[in-house]
Amino acid sequence: MPVTVLLVDDEPLVRAGLRAVLEAQPDIEVAGEAADGAAVIPLVRRLRPDVVAMDVRMPLMDGIEATRALLRTVAEPPKILVVTTFENDEYVYEALRAGADGFLLKRARPAEIVHAVRLIAEGESLLFPASVRQLAAEYGEGGGNRAARAALERARLTGREGEVLRLMARGLSNAEIAARLVVGTETVKSHVSAVLAKLGARDRTQAVITAYESGYVAPG
């Protein structure tokens, strides 16, 4: 089955460019388009896309609020890929904090766009980990986020789970973590699932942001 994508951007040329890049791939299908975040929820309910590729800045409802609304109201929400003009943007970090799974620059090359959509859909790696670290270093409160620290304390991660979280924060995939720890991939998947459940995180991105904001992992 192809990965289905909903494109949300107020610029028709951006949507057209993304559509052209994605639909050139045999395993990706553009399910629909919208010009504002306010249209996301009804379209998601009707089209059931695997991924929403959404501009972070839009006139009526921006990508941050649309992400919050989508995760709050849709029982099984799709993956959310924020599309942005600027990499080092507080809006991007707020979207990630709100629950977006990753971000993509509008100037990205076609191969990077396709890779981002596939990686977000699979959910087994952190998209652009160095950029997420940079955003966390600038906007993540230097490990002093009380809510994140409380979440880590409640989680009571085991030593091995802590190792897995640190390797996730470095952007390693499940297979790479398995090789590093000399264990099976299924064992790593179990540890990752346990980390997400204990932290109450939707995905790897949210778990890593909690790790950075609590000071459990240094973003530098």
TrEMBL record:
> Which Pfam family name is an example for this entry?
GerE
The UniProt record lists the HTH luxR-type domain at 150-215
The reply to whether Transferase figures as a keyword in the UniProt entry is: no
Query: Which InterPro entries does this UniProt record tie to the protein?
Result: CheY-like_superfamily (IPR011006), NreC/VraR/RcsB-like_REC (IPR058245), Sig_transdc_resp-reg_C-effctor (IPR016032), Sig_transdc_resp-reg_receiver (IPR001789), Tscrpt_reg_LuxR_C (IPR000792), WalR-like (IPR039420)
Q: Which UniProt keywords apply?
A: DNA-binding, Phosphoprotein, Transcription, Transcription regulation
* UniProt keyword Transcription regulation present: yes
Residues annotated with 4-aspartylphosphate modification: D55
Positions of the Response regulatory domain: 4-121
Full protein name: Response regulator transcription factor
